[in-house]
Amino acid sequence: MAVTRGFLGRPPADSSRVPPGQYVTRDFPVLSAGPTPHTRLDAWNFTIRGSVDNPVSWSWAEFQALPHERFTVDIHCVTKWTKLDMAWAGVPLDTFLDAVSTPAAHAMAFSDGGYTTNVPLADLRGGKAWIVDEYDGQPLDPEHGGPARLLVPHLYFWKSAKWIRGLDLLTDDQPGFWEMYGYHTYGDPWKEQRYYGD
Ligand SMILES: Nc1nc2c(c(=O)[nH]1)N[C@H]1C(S)=C(S)[C@@H](COP(=O)(O)O)O[C@H]1N2
Ligand SMILES: [Mo]
Questions:
Q1: Band of the pLDDT at 13, cuts 50, 70, 90?
Q2: FRET partner for 174 with CA separation of 20 to 30 A, picked from 34, 50, 182, 194?
Q3: Which domain of life does this protein belong to (predicted)?
């Protein structure tokens, strides 16, 4: 059977980069559980607290002065969109975590507006997670979490807390906002860990 180029359309995206049950989109959808907070930069800080010897905070100016990395990653949302090759800039979490001494194995990210999400500390270390303040060469749009958001690209995107203000370090895992509503506690897109029990 003859199939013209038009019927074939665009070649499919490299399937090795698309987790099961996901489709590739070019859009950057906005998904927020509440209104976009607008915190003044002179009132903003990033704080590591909880199960630590001493809590530590960075002002916006101090955060800006930290060495930033530029990197490109694929993002997978539990609502089934995947967006490839997203270009970000931010500070690896290692930079912040190296400033505290802690027996904790878990972190609860907390944000302006009250959003929380839990992530194992090991998933925030080793250059796998960042506090980002730039997307696609521009300051991070408030709708997408500006001035700064957590980015944990190897987990579903709900773990990447927008408007982040800090981490509560915890010795025991606890559910965050969506995790209390039945989302998976860990959220590995390659294992389709969408909901509790997956
Ligand atoms: N503070 C906060 N962070 C959040 C959310 C939220 O509602 N509030 N939604 C999460 C969810 S469910 C997703 S899919 C992504 C969406 O990010 P985006 O709006 O930049 O696409 O942010 C995550 N981080
Ligand atoms: Mo989401």
A1: low
A2: 34
A3: Bacteria
Q: What's the N-to-C CA distance of the chain in angstroms? A: 42
Question: Within the chain, how many helices (H) and strands (E) appear?
Answer: 5, 11
Å from CA of 90 to ligand 1 middle: 17
Residue 148 has which token pair? 């700064």
Q: Does the residue 75 lie in any domain? A: yes
pLDDT in the model for residue 91: 98
**Cα-to-centroid distance, 156 and ligand 2 (Å):** 7
Residue 70's DSSP bridge partners are: 89
Chain-centroid distance, C-alpha 38:
19
Q: Flag whether 27 is in a domain.
A: no
Q: Which residues have C-beta under 5 Å from ligand 2, the single-atom ion?
A: 31, 77-78, 158
With the most atoms of ligand 1 within 8 angstroms of its CB, the residue from 27, 32, 133 to mutate is 32
- Name the residue with tokens 């909880």: 50
